Amino acid sequence: MASFIKKINLSILVGLLTIIPISGIFDGKFFSLKSQILEIRQHLDNALPGEILVKFSTDEKSAIPIISGKYNLEYSSTHFQKVSQFKLASDSNTLDILEKLNNDPAVEYAEPNYKAVAFNLPNDPFFKYQWNFQEDKLNLEKIWSGATGRGAIVAIVDTGVAYEDYFSFKQAPDLENTRFVPGYNFVQRNSHANDENRHGTHVAGTIAQSTDNGVGVAGIAPSASIMPVKVLDKNGSGNYADVADGIIWATDHGADIINLSLGGPSPSRVLEDALEYAFDNDVLVVAAAGNNGSNNVSYPAAYSKYALAVGAVDALGEVTSYSNRGVGLDIVAYGGDLSKDFDNDGYKDGILQQTLQSGSTREFGYIFLQGTSMAAPHVAAAAALLVEKGIKNPEELTELLTKSATDLNSKGYDTSTGWGLLNPLAALKGLANGSNIALEPAEPIVQPNVPPTARILGPDNAYTGKAVDFRGDSSYDSDGYIKSYNWDFGDSEGSTLARPTHIYKSPGNYTVKLEVIDSENEKNVVFFNISIINSPQKDLIIDSIDILSEKSFIRVRARVFVKVVDENGLPVSNAEVKGNWSGSAGGSSYRLTDSNGIAEIASRWNFSRHGYIGFSISQVSFEDADIVWNFDLNKSKIAEITVTY
Fold first, then answer.
1. Which chain positions lie within coiled-coil regions (predicted)?
2. Relative to the CA of 590, which of 69, 222, 383, 570 has its CA 20 to 30 Å away?
3. What tens digit of pLDDT does each residue of 468-520 get?
4. Which among 210, 373, 404, 535 is annotated as catalytic?
5. Which of 79, 199, 202, 378 is catalytic?
6. Pick the CATH number of 537-644 from 2.40.30, 2.60.40, 2.60.120, 2.30.30
7. Is 233 in the active site?
8. Which CATH number, 3.40.1380.20, 3.90.550.10, 3.30.70.80, 3.40.390.10, labels domain 33-115?
9. What is the pLDDT of residues 271-301, one digit of tens each?
10. 141 by DSSP, 3-state: which?
11. pTM of the prediction?
């Protein structure tokens, strides 16, 4: 592949530094009930109040009502792995209940539902400002000649990704050419994992920002597909239960790699079981080590048997002050340091990608960020390059990435840098410290075209005579693009727009059909049912018209006051009143009614000493999303008026 470097101009740079404080960390192994309860006590401050998670050793369907009654619990939901979530009674003691549950033969284990947070909040511009990608760092230009991550699916389990135009959400412009596969939103419980925070979009950009597109910045594995899985809310906060669900969902839906730029200080069997599930199903989990500079790796990265824990170094390869160290740290990667500018380019040495502007779901900027959250996607993207080469087993990927890492301290493993600094070029050759080995061009991969997937978004019910908005632009093609949209609204009318609007004239149940065609002319069809009912009807009635004349020397004009009410005599505000002038005045005028239902309409000035001015109503209308307002002159008390002067 040709070099992705383009000549580009600098636009917006916004500096931001946010470090999430994380307290000390326990070892995390549940060797006995006593040590388990002690461990829970140590981390109870990090738990969601009144929420616990229970995994049953017996059939959970029969156990749930028994356990609920026995311990005065309120059942909430069941997560993957048959983990059930409960709420405690307001007068219950969390530790007492957990100790009793862990002693109950029907329970395998019980623990609090701990909080999870993003390890950083966002900042980004252009390739020459991405110091971490340059020749003396990752040397991506050389890597791209042989690997770009094609065929790999990387799940971003985070705050979501700005990957689609959907109601108030907008796709990041520099993700326009990035491949996406369907994801899931565990915060709002729907299939639209859009970012409200900025963190997940920045992480996704490091992995697979649209590259060689003439704008913005690059990503390490630009041909990889991103699977957005939203488990953290707009504040970057969430809980372990949703994170575990996100890990399992991504595993079950085809992810090769899962990036976790999140975590917390508390150990959790629920989280560990989810990591084990991913590992057992050949999914590599890459997790950020944490940002409080402690000597303990945060969870879930601390579960080193199942996750690849990533710390952060600065542009000089020195471990950053914020990066967590400790047993279980596997590798370090560039995470940035916003207090330094080693390359003297005028900008602090954060990691640069495009993401959302603060507080917006539609406005974007190129933003520098720092954190192990930024380091982890470097490793996830490097793994995607290896997946393209056919290596998918998490143990093999871990071995290649760690053995090829560049030693930063003493030779071999240490708890500050793990096995060393990520070196994807050497990993691709399967050699430790192989940065001087020429990378051979990748053999072309011939893959069959994947058909597109058609999706329809629209209301289940609507009224006759009212515009109905349909959306087909959430349809997608994982290996190309949607070339055309063909709609059939079920009433012999159609459209070729991605977001059509249609008005149904008659009530009934309609089946809407959407056919999408991709860049390789393959088709996919989806159907959608909508029920149309007659719109509620109301009348607009002219209750009164008053007119007066105004004189200024030899000029004269008329002013009319029209009151509009409904059939119950109640004033209607924001109704549009149109009418025609006669006599000394000519033309037509319109005005909206005020909160009292009165429209004040004035004629133009005329030069006349004597005569008359008349005004007659031609139309009264009112736009309402739910009600059809009818105007009939015959139902009005008066429709015209004249003034003589």
1. none
2. 570
3. 989 887 787 766 678 889 999 999 999 999 889 999 999 999 999 999 998 78
4. 373
5. 199
6. 2.60.40
7. no
8. 3.30.70.80
9. 999 999 999 999 999 999 999 999 999 999 9
10. helix
11. 0.61
